[in-house]
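Data availability excerpt. The first of two example chains:
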Amino acid sequence: ENARLVEANTHSIDPAAIDHPIFPLLDLVPANKQQILGIDATADSVRLSAIIRARDRHAVQVAGSVISMSGIDFLVLYAPIYDADEKFSGVLEFDYDLKKLLHNVVTTTKADRDFDVYVSGDHAAHALGIALDGSFVNASPLEGTSLVARKTADFGGHRLDVRYVFHRDLQKESWLRGFRFMFGGFLLTACMTSMLAFAASRASNLAQEVDSRRAAEERLKGLIHELNHRVRNIMAVAQSIVRLSFTPGQDLADVKLVCEGRLQALSSAMTLLTDSDWTSVSLRSLTSGAHLPFADRILVEGPDLALKPKAAQTFALLLYELAVNAAKHGALSNVTGQVSLKWALDMSAAEPMFRLSWSEHGGPPVLPPARRGFGELLVRRIAPRDVAGRGRVSYDADGFSYELEAPLHEIVGAEGIPKN
């Protein structure tokens, strides 16, 4: 009922007016088109070309381009049909909705992809493009665009090309990516260099610290050795003072006072040396009231000198012994006596010399001691020996006098010799 033939544009065809051979197409689906006896395929050159190829090649053929029907793009295939005598009877048409056919291409691609997909058949110029929004457009890939991938497949007896085409500035992106890698490499190199430099600096600091500690240990060993040497010397001097201070028949209380005075003189010299880190002691400091008894009654004259440690110990004991002897037996034993302490330098000789004199006047007559105790040994032998010099003692009627002469380099160091 109401069966009719129609053109490709669905306009009815009057069979009496047909003046050329036609290929009627009968739609089996959808059902609402089953009342149409057929569509004249000859009105569409694309359909007609595909039908003729299917008839001549005895194989399924695909239309050369996409066919749009009712606003939907279809990929159309034609399968030839022959009777028992191998006479061509017609074709079966298969219409594939491209959006459904290529659904996987759209759904498996990232939504934010920045490339298009093109599918083409035998004629690459006729291509179907899948745009970024998932719609389909008939378009051809631009010449010179970069293909990220290209795949081929057989469909309906023909090859299908699937091309993924970028629409980005790949050259710029490659430069940017290269710059990122380069910057990252520089940053990594800088970090590694900094770490190596830090490690090297730590190793250098550790080596310096080890060297410093070793040097400090060596200095400490030297100081301990020097301290042991000085302590032995001081103990030897102290033992000599105590041993020689004892006189047969002398009261122990007097011996105790004599020993204490002499040891105190030695201790004063040690204090001055400690304050100067055992470098030198001022000769004038030994003649001050803090270290020399009766200093206010002794006339001192001579340039100040920086005595060596050994010479400082010797002069501290020598001056103390001379002052105490003068207080007991000489000029300081009465109120009218006078004592003069002078020293001078003789720079005119081949070897510079130091000369010291102690002179007493106004005291009682003096006589040589009947027994030589510590004081006599000190002024005659111990003091001259310690400074590699010569000592002379005189018991004149006018008073006791003492002279000491020694090479200047035994008394002071090079830095302690006055320039004038």
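And the second chain:
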Amino acid sequence: MLVKNKLLLILFAVIQTTSAFNNKKIAEYLQNKKDFSGAILISHKNSVIFKQYYGFENRELKIANNSKTQFPIASNTKIFTATAIMLLQDKKLLQVTDNISKYIPEAHNFTSVTIHHLLTHTSGIPCYYKKWADICSCKNLDNIIRQISTWQQEFIPGSSYQYSNTNYLLLAHIIEKVSGLPYYDFLMKNMFHPLNMHNTNSVSTDDITKIARGYISNNNNITKSPLITSPLTLIGNGDLCVSLDDLHIWLKALFSSKIITKPSLDILAAKQTALSQHSTRAHGYGCFIDKKDNKTVVEHTGALIGFLSKFMVFPDDDIMIIILTNVENLEIFSEIEKQIPNMLFSDGE
């Protein structure tokens, strides 16, 4: 009888905790966002407590966004890259304290840059957007790396913070050198295939039929966004496309230490570098760590012309929020990413 009562109390606690979240309020709020097109998921512990698709994967063909729609997640690719690095460290194939010249011998200008510096955006290596003329005509990743290796650093490694996509492009190259596999193949073998992620892809794929079409919203006028023309530069820093469910599967696996060890996860999701002297926001490995209403959140945002994406993980509350959109409207997206956590954790009033 005592055991039965305990089980009933546990069941009641679970139901009470799940129902305490303002799902109805969130659903009503999003229903009124007529211009939002994409997918949103909220999970608590191992249960999805909210999931909905909005708008069209392809407006011209009238194909609605659905469970198989793959959204380019842009810079959210970076946490996959950081996880791959930590996985290689778990396998004792590298150390984040290693100098990158160990794996990129041609990087003579970066002799004091470590893998840790790349992971935390403290390398001083400029973002490739500043040097686009140097790399836009490169035909493969090796040529891009050789060009980057001729650049000058903008500050002494470890002395400052500056977000740079180049850091994660270099990390992708290191993953390829150490593993002997192309970057995407390494992720497929070690993450996507074991986790049964069947709706994940790269922007450089030949099969684009399942990838959402991107659009831009401007003054209530929605137009097609330009197609991606330089996918090589996005490797490791912005090239992944995932479905809503696949991204949730992957985040659940990561934060339950099913991809990398718990000590490695603790490092990845820890505050490694403050963004500024007076900021509470810090950078981990492939993610940002901040406070929202005194709750710790591990998060990142992705932006690629026509697409915006966001994941937020509240580890202390075991809450995950994923927002994916294929109609670029920064005003609506920014409002949604702020309002959902506010409503989720409100007292129901």
